[in-house]
Amino acid sequence: MNSLSKPPIERLRAIMVRLRDPVVGCEWDTAQTFATIAPYTIEEAHEVADAIARGDMADLKDELGDLLFQVIFHARMAEEAGQFDFDAVATAISDKMERRHPHIFGDRVEGGHHLWEQIKAEERAGKDDTDRSALSGVALGLPALLRAEKLQKRAARVGFDWPDESGPRAKIDEELEEIENAPEQKVAEEIGDLLFAAVNWARHRGVDPEAALRAANAKFERRFRAMEDSAGAAFPGLTLDEKEQLWQRAKAAER
After folding, report:
1. Does domain 3-84 have CATH number 1.10.287.1080?
2. Rounded to an integer, what distance in angstroms lies between the CA atom of residue 233 and that of residue 236?
3. Comparing 3-84 with 129-207, is the CATH topology the same?
4. DSSP state at residue 176
5. pTM surpassing 0.70?
6. Among 53, 55, 61, which Cα is nearest to 214's?
7. What is d(CA 10, CA 19) in angstroms, rounded to the nearest whole number?
8. With a cut of 50, which residues of the chain have pLDDT below it?
9. Cα–Cα distance for residue pair 66/47, rounded to 1 Å
10. CATH homologous superfamily of domain 129-207?
11. 3-state SS of the chain: helix, strand, coil percent to 5?
């Protein structure tokens, strides 16, 4: 069968098989492992989020394809190792979605997020795993802000949480003071505590800290580029006061 005549997902799988072929495949692709590909998987997921944030649907289509290719890549390596293949991955996620939506695919009447979390907890409890902590399963590879939020939410489920936002807000002041008084070798640790407290306050305010910081990054980049455009080639040589004036002008232009 001609490659173009295959269903798209089968064509992509066939491409991956060829790329990983030890005789006729790509030297780079055949040399990869789960560990070496993992950073690319994370990068592609971030590029999907970036395309969404920019509202660029054409780019989103491309980035989703890149992310899908990462899934195909990992599944192929697992198949080569005799562990599982892409069909097993698709079957597992299909089973999970149906299992976690019994009010849609089963005979349960009620649904909602609480049911989803209840079923997830039951699944974790049923695993042959000695780690029974409420924090079990929060992936180490998550972006730090997102992981902090997830850890806090898990702790909150078992009653370890501030009763209202005044607690984490006061904690921020406490951490700032500790940074100012910390010896040099402890400063990084205390700044980490400050960031953790900021995530906690954001969570209590109903703000997604990862999305908030992403928006702040975009705002800084937008305003900085406006400064560069305004000054042209002279920008690097301007004084700090002159650059601050350009910054304030760029800021005012957005109001």
Report:
1. yes
2. 7
3. yes
4. H
5. no
6. 53
7. 14
8. none
9. 9
10. MazG-like (1.10.287.1080)
11. 75, 0, 25
